[in-house]
Structure formats: structure tokens, C-alpha cells
Design brief:
By secondary structure, this protein is of the alpha+beta class. Helices cover 49% and strands 17% of the residues. α8 runs antiparallel to α9. It starts with a helix and ends with a strand.
């Protein structure tokens, strides 16, 4: 499970869940593995091989001990597959944890308002790389997510929850889970999610679907409810807080360093 808080979630009220506990929970295994990882793109492997070739030309004796380039790339792919498997095992309970957290928010929205306002302290400013004269808002504590409005959006989300009547819990439905991409090429395809949802809609009644890339369920749920995005569509928060929805589907896994989760909701 992603953090100690999630393990205790069924024993604690939402107002007692500390964001400091959530964010400070060490992820030693993943951190160690990430230090060993090579970038996902195979172009990085080719570049590394080119650099080694230049070094070997200046040191023929060392070159004799080098493995063939094909074997190195094969080793890289095997290593990447192993790391993906280890991380997917570590985060296998992500869907169950998300459903549990979302249902606690729905069943006692007023209690979660305090959690949202307590998280405002993690909003920071940093220089905007695209515009050096401006700064951008980010939510940064074990994660780094760009915000549009920042603190006002968090206060408004908290106020919305305080004025919201309790909602019935959602039931996990595996039939509405959207298939995840299995490789980098599919991941980069611009219409992959849309096409998969369209195919699934032919047999299942999906009302709303979206994706997320935050691997910590508590942080992911928090930012979905605040939903401080550029287009201000409130698509994610409206789905989580929709009184008419009965079912939720969540599918998640790692592709290299990228964590990906697809959410779907239906009546």
C-alpha cells in the first residue's frame, strides 16, 4: 500500500488523517530503484551506447571487455520490465484504496473540508520555465502538480463540501474499467483513452471518464476534489461528488517511471 495512513483509513475519521503522515511516509524501495533506473526512451540507450563508443575508441583495451550493444539494450529492457513489475506489485492496492477514500469523502464531505484547507500549506510558487518573468503555482510535497488558482480553489472546494449532503458510496465495477496502454507507443497516442472509452461505451454505460498520474491515492483524491485545472471544468470533482453515480471503475499501472490511472463512473 502507498502509505501508512491508507492502512489505517478504516479505523480513523477523515479529520484525523494527517497530510504530514501521508507525505512523509518513506518509499524507500521505489526511491532506491529509481536511482538505478535508465530513462524510459530507448533513444537514451542509443545515446549511451554512442558515448561509450567514443570512449572505447580512445581506450581499445577497455573496449575488449564491453558487452555487445544488442545485449546491453536487451538488459535494459529486462531491467525496465522487472522494475515495472516491482512497482506494480507495490501499488497493486491503489484502486481499492482510491475507492475507499472517495467513499469516505462522499459519506462525510464536511469532515474532508478540513483536510483540504490543511493542505493549503503545501502550495508553493516556482519560476515558470516558459516565461521567466512569471511564477507558477504548484502543489509540492512528494508530488509536484501545477495549479491554476491555488489557495482560492482549495477554499472553494472546502466550502462546497461543507454545504454538501452525504452521498451514497460508490461500488467498484470491473466491467467499466478502461483498459490501460501496455507500452510507451500506446501511452503517447493522443486518442488512446478516448478510443478505449468509446469502445467500452458500446457495452457499458459510462458517463464520465478521465486519467490521473499521481501514485499516492490520498494526494490524488485530494487534488481531484479541489480540481484546480486550467479549463476549470470541474470534471473530476463533479464525478466524485455526483449523487446519481452508483459505480466506479479504476485501472492503474506503471509504464517505466510513468504511473497512470484511468477512472470511469456510471449510474
Amino acid at each position: 500500500m502507498g502509505c501508512q495512513c491508507a492502512k489505517k483509513a478504516d479505523e480513523e475519521e477523515l479529520e484525523n488523517i494527517s497530510l504530514d503522515q501521508i507525505y512523509e511516509e518513506p518509499e524507500k524501495v521505489i526511491a532506491q530503484k529509481q536511482n538505478e533506473e535508465i530513462p524510459l526512451a530507448t533513444e537514451a540507450v542509443k545515446k549511451k551506447n554512442q558515448e561509450e563508443q567514443i570512449i572505447n575508441e580512445n581506450n581499445p583495451e577497455a573496449a575488449k571487455n564491453q558487452e555487445p550493444k544488442e545485449e546491453k539494450e536487451e538488459d535494459y529492457l529486462e531491467k525496465l520490465e522487472r522494475l515495472n513489475e516491482e512497482k506494480n506489485i507495490k501499488y497493486a492496492e491503489y484502486p481499492d484504496n482510491m475507492v475507499e477514500i472517495i467513499n469516505k469523502i462522499r459519506e462525510n464531505p464536511a469532515a474532508y473540508a478540513d483536510t483540504i484547507e490543511d493542505s493549503i500549506k503545501y502550495i508553493e510558487e516556482e519560476p515558470d520555465k516558459n516565461n521567466p518573468t512569471k511564477k507558477k503555482l504548484i502543489f509540492k510535497k512528494k508530488v509536484k502538480v501545477s495549479l491554476t488558482r491555488g489557495e482560492p480553489a482549495f477554499h472553494e472546494a472546502a466550502e462546497r463540501l461543507r454545504n454538501l449532503d452525504p452521498l451514497p458510496p460508490l461500488e467498484f465495477n470491473g466491467n467499466i474499467c478502461i483498459p490501460l496502454p501496455q507500452n510507451e507507443e500506446e501511452l503517447k497516442a493522443p486518442n488512446y483513452l478516448k478510443d478505449q472509452a468509446k469502445t467500452l461505451k458500446e457495452t457499458e454505460n459510462i458517463d464520465i471518464y478521465f486519467k490521473d498520474s499521481i501514485k499516492l491515492p490520498e494526494v490524488s483524491a485530494l487534488l481531484m476534489v479541489v480540481d484546480d485545472n486550467a479549463n476549470n471544468s470541474k470534471r473530476k470533482s463533479n464525478a466524485i461528488l455526483n449523487k446519481n453515480f452508483k459505480y466506479i471503475g479504476i485501472n492503474s499501472h506503471f509504464i517505466g517511471k510513468t504511473f497512470l490511472a484511468y477512472f470511469s463512473f456510471s449510474k
